[in-house]
Structures are given as C-alpha cells and as structure tokens.
Amino acid sequence: MAGINSLGGLANSAWLFNSNNQKQNSINQLWSAYGNFQSNATSALAGLTEVNAGLKNVLASYDDAKNAFQSEFSEAMENLSASADKLKTYNFNVEKEGAITNTTSTDDKGVTTTTTTYSKDMQAALDTVKNFVDDYNSAVKFFGEHSTVSKRIEQMATTFGDTSYRSSLYSSIGLMTGADGSLTIDETKLADTILNNPDKVSSILGKDGLAGKAESHISFANSQADKLFPTAKEMLGDQLDTASLYTGKAYRNMTAYSNMGNLINMMF
Fold first, then answer.
1. Domain count of the chain?
2. Residue 100: what are its φ and ψ, rounded to 5°?
3. Would you tell me how many other CB atoms lie within 10 Å of the CB of residue 91?
4. What pLDDT shows up at residue 113?
5. In the predicted model, is pLDDT for residue 214 greater than 70?
6. Residue 77 sits in which domain range?
7. Whole-angstrom Cα distance, residue 140 to residue 146?
8. Which residues are CB-contacts of 94 (< 8 A; sequence separation ≥ 6)?
9. Is there a domain that residue 42 lies in?
10. Which end of the chain is less crowded, N or C, counting CB atoms within 10 A of the terminal residue's CB?
C-alpha cells in the first residue's frame, strides 16, 4: 500500500507540477498577448495625441483667420460708412472763379506741358469723391478676395459689385466702373462736371445716389456680420468630426486599456 501511496503521491505531484506549468504558460501567454496589445495601444495613443495636437493647431489657425476677417471687415465697413456719410450731403457748388486753372509751358526742346491746378474748394470736392471711391474699392476688393470662403461673402461681393448696372450714369460725371464693381476717376471730367453741373454730381453721388446705395450695402453687410465667416464645422466639414471622435472617446478608451496590466497583476 505504501508503494501504491507513494506512486499515487508521485502522480499527484506530477499532476500539480504540470498544472502549475499550464497555469504559468497561461499567464505567460496572457502577458505576451497583453504586451502586444499594450505596444499597439501605445503606438495608437501616440498617434491620437498627435492628431489631438494637430486639431488644436487647426482650430487655433481657424480662430486667427476668423478674427483677422472680422477685424478687416469692421474696418472696411467703418471707413466706407464715414466717407459715404460725408459724400451724401456734400455741397458741390464751388466758387467758379479760379476753380480750375490750366497753365501751359514749353521746355527748351519744344515740348509743351499743361499743368492743371484747382482751387481749395474744388480740391476739397475732388478729395471727398476720391476718399469715397478708395473706401468703396477697398470693400469691393475685400469681399472679392474672400468670395470663395462662403456663399454669404460671395453674395456680398455681388452686392458691392452692382455699380456696373449704372455705369453709363456714373461715367457721365467722370466715374468709370470695373467688371468687379470697383471705381476709377477721370479727374478732369469730374472737375469739369462739378464746375458746370454740381447738382448733377450731387444727384448721382448723394443720398439718393451712389452714397445712399453704399450705405444700404453697408447696412446689409453688417446685418450678416456674424454669419459671413463659416463656422469651424462648416469650413472643416467631416474632418473636424473625425478628428474630434478620435481625440475624444477613443482617447479615453486607449487610456483605460493601457491600465489593463494593473488588473492582470491583481489576478495573478
């Protein structure tokens, strides 16, 4: 019996030994699997961290672009509003005597040059129109350069570009219109019209003319100010949603998975 018991004990010892080996192999396999997972998770987490940093940079750049747009928009509208306000009530009746003086001179080679000078009143009238034209052109250029950013800005470019439909009227006093709605001045013609027909200039450029129309455009633009520049989602589209997804819940999940080793240590 003793022999049998010894054999039985030996068999049981062998079974326990093998069982321990199997258990150890299971643990080793689990650690190996976890090691592979942790390596992959670490790489993925590093990638997500990079995406998260990239997303922050993109959103920071978006904020910079939006702020720059809003600042330039406000400046353009304020400048144009001020010059239109002055133009719409400007009195173009200038003193005719000495308003325009043409002086001709000939150099030693026989080349004749004509120099035109204006009186103080005439120069002030011309400068009032010039300042308005400069500010109007700045607005046209601003909306034109940003017209591809959003449909609303494109609409503003079209709105401020509507001078072309009255081009013949404007040209009759010395203002030429471009295809984009910008204006250029024929100074000689404008000065002559101011001198000889100031009421016509006031009618075409005043509160019921170009200055009044500009104010209407400004009012419309200001009413759309907070909608002109697209939101980050509108500008970045699905890419923003995708980046947010992978830097939100997925990031937290990766962090939780990386703590799996603690659970394994508790179990074994």
1. 1
2. -130, 125
3. 11
4. 86
5. yes
6. 66-230
7. 10
8. 119, 121, 122, 125, 194, 195, 198
9. no
10. N
